[in-house]
Structures are given as structure tokens and as C-alpha cells.
């Protein structure tokens, strides 16, 4: 298969499968919102996120409903765990059988999670490309391939040289890549080399209606000059001696993610061996989000804020506040505690030869304090009810005399 397959489609002059099959539609959609609608890169990311989440809404609705059904079945799962305590294999088999009986797919929420990964990576690539800033180390900047690329592609401009503070040796060089280009300039062999691929002009991968006439402005004035193509340094607090900045945007994203995960997490159960793992993940993912805020561009964190907020609202419309409250002992008035719904009844399979009168009920559905009578007790009670009392016999003898 040749490296250029989709070239010429609606003005696209560089197309490299298989990644561009997924990446280019998202890249063009993001820049279409920026160039044609809002002319603001932050608003373009927000509108892009809402549109993507709306298109994926049916998958997430299925995921949320599956999580809600699994929450309702927790009493039955706990009964299985209590009954087979210490036997993890039996607990797993009985739990899977229980889910099959009630038509609950335990892995129904995996597809939306899988789809998030390529979306995040595609947006990350779009942010790097939109900034038009490419960083090379000293060896890459001095390579013959880069010299040939500079000769064949006019418009590459050196922005900054970063040297070692101790030795004075050159470490990295920052360049501005051109955003316009056409024809042979879009298909240079150096673009197949990973470190030089970001020098590909933006217009080479954009359709005709959104070809750019000027560079994308990733700096947003209403966010106090935040550059969405760089790590957040506007709303960040530096940690002395560590070299790491705590991003305010990442903190907001982490709080929203904690709310979203806790709403759907089952309540702690000491009999469940996976309960501690679930509780740990509730706090681990938000902490990872805070850490990623110091590594990835702030535009990616803005996307994650809008993405998670949309998901929280969607979950609330389907399942309310779920298991969010009580939160560290706090139960707000506007979110009163709700009684958990009754667990679904176990589906008991019977053969056609079974006695219909023998109504066998699972122990989880039987009211407390009741006892099941054996057939001998039922038949004995029936015969005892038809037997005449001795007192009534004495009255008859009295009438005869």
C-alpha cells in the first residue's frame, strides 16, 4: 500500500493510513469550529468536546444503565459472597451466573472507556500540530535529514536555543513550522521520520473550506493568556524543590472525575474482596489526573474538564446522585438519602416434572422469621383440620339422652 492513499480528497494533500483514518476527521472538525464558528481555540475545544460526547451518548447511556443495574443487584451479590465466603472461584462463578440470569453485561461499559484513549491521543496530536512549535534535540537539529527538510520546505524558523546551565552545551532547539504548503511540499520523504513529522504544514491535511490563511492562535485572552498548546502555568502553583507545578485546571478535572466515579461505585462491602480495589481506584484516577496536568498541554486538560462534566450531568439524569453521598460524612439537604431499590428476584429454573405447588423461593427473597413447611407437615395439618373435636362429641351424646 503506498503511503499516500487519500490525497486529493476535498483538498487533503497528505494522508497516511491507518492513523489518519481516525485522526484527520477529528483534526478537521476541531479546526472547523475554530476557523468557521467561534474563532477562539478554547471555545473550539469546548464545542468539539460537547459534539463528540453527544455523538457517543448512546454508548454512555448503556454504560450508565449497566452500572445502575449492577448496583441494584449488590444485595444478591453480597448474599453469594456471604454464602461462599473464602471460595473466590465459587463466588466468581455464582456472580457471573447471576448476571447472566438477569441479562446484565458486566463488561458493558468497556467500549466507551476504550474509545476515550484514541480520542485523547488524537486531540493531543492536534494541539501539538496547531501550535506549530517543534522541539528537537541537538543531534536531530544537526542531522542531514533536517538540513534537507529546511532546504525543501521554506518557512521553518528557529525560535529558541536551550543550553545546559553548567556546561553551556546545546540541548534543545525550538522551531516554528510553516502552516501553508501544497504539492510536493506536502509529501517530502522527511515527514516519514517521527521527529520531523510535525513540520508538515497544517493546510496539507485540511479540507478546502477550512484552509488557514494565518497561524492558529492557541493563546486565549479570556483565560488570562493561557496557551492551550503548553502546560498550564497560568493557574498553576509551583512546588518548591520538585520542579512540578500543580495545575488549577487539573485540580478541577480531578474533582469532577472523583464525583463521576463515586456516583457509580458500589458501596463498601467487607465481604467483597474487590471492594478495597474499587475504593482505591476512586481516589487513584483523580490523583493521576492532577499528575498529568503537569505533563500534558492545558488544552487536553480543558477537554477532560468538559468531557467529565458532561458525563456527570448525564449520569445524574439517569441515576440521580447515585452513591456520591454521604461524602466524608456530609449529607446535604438538597440530596436527601434515598433507600436503595429492592434487589431483583432470583430467577429459579424448574423442570416440567416438578410439582407446581412446590414453590421454591430463594433465601434472599424469603421474609425474615418465616419457616418452610415440609410436605408431611402440610398434609398432617390438613388432616388435623378435618378431625372432630372431642368436646363436640360429648354434646351429641347429651342430646340423645
Account of the protein in words:
The chain is mainly alpha-helical and 401 residues long. It is elongated. It has 13 helices and seven strands. Helix 1 packs across helix 6 and helix 3 crosses helix 11 (298-319). The protein has helices at residues 19-38, 41-55, 57-72, 74-83, 88-101, 110-131, 138-141, 144-152, 248-264, 275-292, 298-319, 375-386, 390-400, and strands at 133-137, 157-163, 170-176, 219-220, 226-227, 236-239, 244-247. A three-stranded antiparallel sheet has the order 1-3-2.
Low-pLDDT runs: 1-6, 350-354, 356-372, 377-389, 392-396
Secondary structure class reads mainly alpha
- Strand fraction: 5-15%
- Provide mean pLDDT, rounded: 79
Instruction: Give Rg in angstroms.
Output: 33 Å
Tally of alpha and pi helices: 13
Outline the biggest β-sheet. Answer: 3 strands, antiparallel
Give the % helix: 40-55%
Amino acid at each position: 500500500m503506498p503511503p499516500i492513499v487519500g490525497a486529493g480528497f476535498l483538498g487533503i494533500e497528505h494522508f497516511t493510513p491507518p492513523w489518519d483514518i481516525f485522526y484527520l476527521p477529528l483534526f478537521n472538525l476541531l479546526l472547523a469550529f475554530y476557523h468557521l464558528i467561534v474563532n477562539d481555540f478554547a471555545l473550539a475545544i469546548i464545542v468539539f468536546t460537547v459534539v463528540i460526547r453527544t455523538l457517543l451518548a448512546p454508548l454512555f447511556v448503556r454504560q450508565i444503565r449497566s452500572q445502575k443495574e449492577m448496583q441494584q443487584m449488590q444485595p444478591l451479590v453480597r448474599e453469594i459472597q456471604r454464602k461462599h465466603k473464602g471460595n473466590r472461584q465459587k463466588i466468581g462463578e455464582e456472580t457471573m451466573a447471576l448476571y447472566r440470569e438477569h441479562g446484565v453485561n458486566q463488561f458493558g461499559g468497556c467500549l466507551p472507556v476504550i474509545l476515550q484513549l484514541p480520542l485523547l491521543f488524537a486531540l493531543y496530536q492536534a494541539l501539538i500540530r496547531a501550535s506549530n512549535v517543534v522541539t528537537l534535540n541537538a543531534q536531530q537539529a544537526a542531522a542531514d535529514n533536517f538540513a534537507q527538510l529546511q532546504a525543501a520546505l521554506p518557512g521553518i524558523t528557529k525560535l529558541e536555543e536551550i543550553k545546559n546551565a553548567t556546561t553551556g552545551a546545546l540541548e534543545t532547539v525550538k522551531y516554528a513550522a510553516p502552516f501553508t504548503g501544497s504539492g510536493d511540499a506536502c509529501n517530502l520523504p522527511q515527514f516519514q521520520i517521527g521527529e520531523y513529522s510535525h513540520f508538515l504544514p497544517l493546510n496539507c491535511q485540511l479540507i478546502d473550506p477550512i484552509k488557514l490563511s494565518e497561524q492558529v492562535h492557541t493563546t486565549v485572552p479570556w483565560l488570562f493568556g493561557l496557551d492551550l498548546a503548553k502546560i498550564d502555568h497560568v493557574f498553576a502553583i509551583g512546588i518548591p524543590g520538585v520542579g512540578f507545578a500543580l495545575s488549577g485546571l487539573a485540580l478541577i478535572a480531578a474533582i469532577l472525575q472523583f464525583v463521576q466515579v463515586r456516583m457509580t461505585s458500589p458501596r463498601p462491602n467487607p465481604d467483597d474482596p474487590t471492594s478495597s480495589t474499587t475504593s482505591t481506584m476512586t481516589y487513584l484516577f483523580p490523583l493521576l489526573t492532577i499528575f498529568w496536568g503537569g505533563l500534558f498541554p492545558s488544552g487536553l486538560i480543558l477537554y477532560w474538564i468538559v468531557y467529565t462534566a458532561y458525563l456527570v450531568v448525564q449520569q445524574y439524569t439517569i441515576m440521580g446522585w447515585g452513591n456520591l453521598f454521604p461524602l466524608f460524612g456530609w449529607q446535604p439537604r438538597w440530596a436527601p438519602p434515598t433507600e436503595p431499590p429492592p434487589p431483583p428476584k432470583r430467577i429459579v429454573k424448574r423442570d416440567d416434572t416438578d410439582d407446581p405447588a412446590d414453590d421454591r423461593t430463594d433465601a434472599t427473597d424469603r421474609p425474615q422469621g418465616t419457616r418452610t413447611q415440609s410436605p408431611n407437615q402440610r398434609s398432617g395439618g390438613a388432616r388435623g383440620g378435618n378431625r372432630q373435636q372431642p368436646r363436640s362429641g360429648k354434646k351429641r351424646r347429651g342430646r340423645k339422652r
